[in-house]
Structure formats: structure tokens, C-alpha cells
Model the fold of this input.
Amino acid sequence: MRCYFDNSATTRCFDSVAAIVDQVLRTDYGNPSSLHRKGVEAEQYLRYAKEQIAKSLKVQEKEILFTSGGTESDNLAIIGAAMANYRRGKQLITTRIEHPAVLQTMSYLESLGYGVTYLPVDSYGCIRLEDLEAAVTPETILVSIMHTNNEIGSMMPVEEAGRLIKQKNPQTLFHVDAVQGYGKCRIYPKKAGIDLLSVSGHKIHGPKGIGFLYVGEKAKIKPILFGGGQQGGMRSGTENVAGIAGIGKAVEEIFSHLDEDISRLYEYKEYFMSRVQDIPDVTINGPQGRSGAPHIVSLSVKGVRAEVLLHSLDDEGICISAGSACSAHKPTPSATLSAIGLERGLLESTVRFSFSVETTKEQLDYALAVLNEQIPKLRRYTRK
Amino acid sequence: MFSAFLIKYAEIGIKGKNRYLFEDALVNDIRYALRRCEGSFHVHKADGRIYVDALSDFDYDETVDNLKTVFGVAGICPVVHVEDSGFEQLKKDVLSYMDTVYADKHKTFKVFARRARKNYPMQSPQMNEELGAAILEAFPDFCVDVHHPEIQLNVEVREKIYLYSEVIPGPGGLPLGTNGKAMLLLSGGIDSPVAGYMIAKRGVHIDAVYFHAPPYTSERAKQKVVDLAKLISRYTGPIHLHVVNFTDIQLYIYEKCPHEELTIIMRRYMMRIAETLAGKNDCLGLVTGESIGQVASQTMASLACTDDACVMPVYRPLIGFDKNDIVDIAEKIHTYETSILPFEDCCTIFVAKHPVTKPNLKVIRDHETNLKEKIDGLVETALKTEEIILVEA
Done:
């Protein structure tokens, strides 16, 4: 049986998404900036996608900017906010467990003279609101907090954070990296005080190379790409019409049955977690129950190296991800796993299962059977 | 401006009656290397030399780079062809050559003319004199030195007239295929690709064997070995890469033998399997990247144990090299960057923290008898399930 359980890395494109992408690439291939009919036709796809996305977030269509994906959205949000607001202050706040697209961008800004505060997290991978409150000052121009952690599935209290930030400094922009969270729960930026929100297409069964950034109409940011002035000058470059149509279709599909999907995913996750913990010395990292994301399970399997487990599951048709990059020459344990205080011995024994709406109960049972068979086998050959 | 290359070869020149075999192989190898280049070329032997004439526009840098991968090439001389339209015109052509090739003219030179076409109206010494005088007159910064010139301008009179003075060093060695075939044990580290390069440089075709240990080593580790084979195949010609699944053998040794001796015993089985594959594929020897004392399994005592496992000669071209020297070559042949990608680390769980450095052959042989129950079957299965990948740059 084939089990693709690495949906936090990327997802399978929905058939309907692939179909609309195909339609755009081969038939409706116009440039939306062109004045002729083909151009107008192409522009319709942009309108359609914006409409779907805006509806899902309860925001305005003009507040959506298409980008090349999560990384660009994060870069545009953070650098764009820093460049637009440096006169007011040069202080930024983020967390220790952000995606590299945020962390590396922050460290770039540090090299330009900005100051960055990195909030610690508790053992479930959540920030403490007291820490955030203490960190926000009149000089704080941006707070960037991820919605859902990609490694352990912890979900940050973004609504409370948003409220808190605006209370302490109404001028501070609030960016949320929702690459792992969007399409897995309801997020409403206006209610949560979110000014900027990053989303990637291929994590929600859309194509790769497309994503968007929600930019609240009052949020002031500067562009980071310059050129032909598309998308109101905020993101120059001919629009990726095929990708945009694709992400629009994916959003439409996902949100048409989101609530059923979420509750089914939680059921599956709880089932999987309870069964997998029956295997001796297997522990779950991050939040238990429904406080975490519905699709991510992080496991530490004592005495088995993550990559070895990964490859042996791979041989059985199961794709998962190693929770931390293991390399004997360059030990770089994952920042997230270190930050939640995972014991050293388990850092290299942690794997991630990430499910999707296409995951079935049969697949879970199969994976559990394989785990029950493989783990004892692999433990026979641990380092003497 | 250049329209041909004259290929100099070193060692082939001292061969006796079979010299033509080496020359023909070299011509073939050059043709093979040039198929990667833009443009079309005529490669031919003439008067005991090899010429590469461009028949169309070509990319000079790309062509030189590819000629530099051909073993047996000692030097590459870029040649300018000029039509024979009288000596006065030749003078002009020579002056323009010297002017273009040498922006800095504070150099010593001599002219070395040769008439392959004996009906040319002027004799060589006179040509030397007159062309030399013309150069001196036109560019007073040049200076003649007939004994140790910095520039030797060769003027060869054939159908056309060939002008050349620069020699780009080639890799040296002997043309591929003039020395049979060997089986390289290719691991994915820094050393073994260099060993393959070195042995191929002596005119040896190579096949390679890689021991794959899924799930302890990943598909990417295997891809890395394929990539390395591809990088060296620029020099060695096409390589048949034999991928042998070693996991069960490794686990069995791990179970049955003392842990400190695991690596040595493993290597002995790798040699045995490599030897069998070598025999099947017309190889006359094995090649490894070992260098004395580099790691525990490469001490004199360990090498003696490894060597004992097979009868076929084992060539270790890097045996006296320091790591730095090996890295230098790896960088030169562009394998270093690929070699240091950290993929095969998953099998580190098998490596003992303190492996033996002075294994005793008798003891090792004795411990190998622990394996007698199943090992022959496992080796047979490994051989039967080998995957062969043809790799070609």
C-alpha cells in the first residue's frame, strides 16, 4: 500500500487543480496585462482566485498579493514591513521555532542594523503571552509568529497575541506565517489583528511556485521586487496565472468541506497517536489532543535513527519525514526540537507523520502494522 | 582566430612497433571527448602527429576543456591556419598572430619553421631569419633568444601554413583502452573517485562497484555515487556501475562477529564480491582508494587482512598520498564537492567506536568461520540481485 504521510512537506495536487492549471497553460495562456481578449480571459482567473481566497479569510480581494510561495510571502512581509517603517523603530519580534524563511530573513535584517527578539517556547512548542507582552515596546515595528509549527504541529495563540500586540503598540504590524495552518483550521485576520499572513499553494493541494500574502489595507509595506508594476506595484512580474488559478481551485475545494475534514483528521490523528504509543519507547512530541494541528504527528522512537526508520518505511511504501536533519559530520539538530527541550538522545530519533484530507483509515492501519514490525527489527541493530 | 589544435603526446612517443595502437586509441578518445562539444572536428594523424581541425565554428574554451580530459594528451597547441599566398603575406600573418596572442611583448622568442611541403620556395633557416627580423622590426619590445625562448613560434608549411606557439598542458598518461580494464570499488567518499581517475590515466578502462545498504544508506547516497561515477567518466569513458545490496551481509556480520572487527570483515567480503564481479566482466584487477594509515581499516595490518581476501591484484594508486594531495586531485577533477555531501552517515551505527587497527589475520579468518552457515547464500543473493547502471558523461 502506498502511504504519503509527508503532507507538511508538500501535498498531491488535486485533480481539479491540475485540470485548471492545464487549461490555463495550454488554452487560456494570455498575459493578464494584455489588452486583448486573451489578456482579459487570463485576468478572470486572477479574479476568481482572489475571490476564493478572500472569502476563506473574510477579507477584501484587494488585500491579496500573489507570490511565488511561502518563502517569498515571508520575505515580502518582513523585509517589506521593516523597510516601510524603519523611521518608527528598528525592533522586530519573532519566535525561536519559526521556519527558516522567517528566521533567515530576520537575521538578514539584523545584519542591516535591526534588533530582533526571539521568544522562547514551552515544551509544547507554544510561546507564552507574558513573554510577548514584555517584548513589545514603542520601537517594535513588526511581530512575526507562525500559526502552526511545521515540525510538531503546535498552534500558537495568534488571536490573543494579536490583541495583546495592538493593545501595547497599535502601530506594530503583526505577521503570521500560516503556511502549515491555512486550510487546516479557520483563520480570520481581521478578528485576530493580523496585518500580514503568508500562505503557500503546494501545502494545500495546489501547485508549487505559487502562494499569497494577505496584506491588510492599513498595513504599510514596501515591495521587494521591482519591475513592470503588476499587482499595484507591490509585486512586479507577470502573474503566474496557472499557479494562481490552481491555488484558487485548491482553496475552493478545501474550504467547501473544511469542517468535516478537520474533525475527521483529528479523529485519525488521535487514533494514530494512541496506537503508536502502544509501541514501547515511542513518544509523541508537542501538543496532545486537539490543541495541536490536525495533521501533524511528531514521534520519537528511542534507539532508532530517524533516517534509518524513514528509509525502512520508504521501502514499505510509506513516505514520512525525519524530524531533524541527521548527519554525523555536521550535527544540526532541529531548532524546534531543541527549543521544546527534547532530550539529546531523541533529537536524532524523531520523525514526522503529516496527513492530509486524502489520508484513509486503511493507510493508518497499514502504517501502524509496519511500525510495529520494523521498530523492533531496527532496534536489534543499534550502535553497540 | 584559432582553427585547429595540434596534440602533443609524451609517453606514446617512446613506444616501439605497437605505437600505432596507442596513437589510434588516442585519436578515438579525442573524437569521443569532442562529441560533447559544439561544432564539428576532423581528428587525424599526420606525420607522426595528431591534429584536430575545426570544420565549423566552435567554442574554444569548451573544446580545450574537453581535450584536457583525454589521457595521453601531454599538450594542446592552438593553431592558426593561414593560406599560402606568398612569403610577404605570411610575414603579415605572423605579425598579426604575434600581436594578437601576446599583448605584453616584453618576451624572448624564436621562430621555428618547418617545411613539411618541400616545394615551398624558401628553406627553413631562411624563414626563421626573415620572420624573426620582421617581428623585431614591428615590435621592438620582443627580443630573440634561440636557446631558451619564452615563446617558440612554430611555422609549419603544409597544404596550408600552421602557426602556433602556446602549449596548454594536458593530463598526460596513456590513452584509454590501451591497458585493459579494472574494477573500482567506489564508495562515495573523496578517495575512490580519485583512485579511479588515477588508474584510468594509465590507459585502463574501469567498471565500478558500489555497496548499497538500504535502509541504512539512502537512495540519495546511491545517487551521489552515480553522480561521482558520471564526473569521473568524463575522463575514464563510460562506466558500468554495479550496485550491490550489502545490507543482509552487513547485518549478519554485525550479529556474528566481534564489533571491532566488523569493518575489516565487511571489507573482506566487499573484496570477494568485487573480485567475482571483476572476473565476470573481464577486469584484470581491483582498484581501491586506500592510503596507508588514513583510517583504522587502512593500516598496514588491516590492508594485509583485506588483501588476503582475494587473489586478483589490487591496485591502490593513492597508497602513498596524504589526504591533502588527494583532495587537490579531487578538486581538479571536480569530484570533491560531490564527495563531501553528507549522505551515507546513516550507516555510522555499524562502525565501532574503537575498531581494531592491528587486526591479526588468523583471528579474523577464525572469526569469519562464525559466518559459514549463511554467508555463501547471502553473497550469492547479493551478486544475483546486482543492479547495473551505465554511466556516461
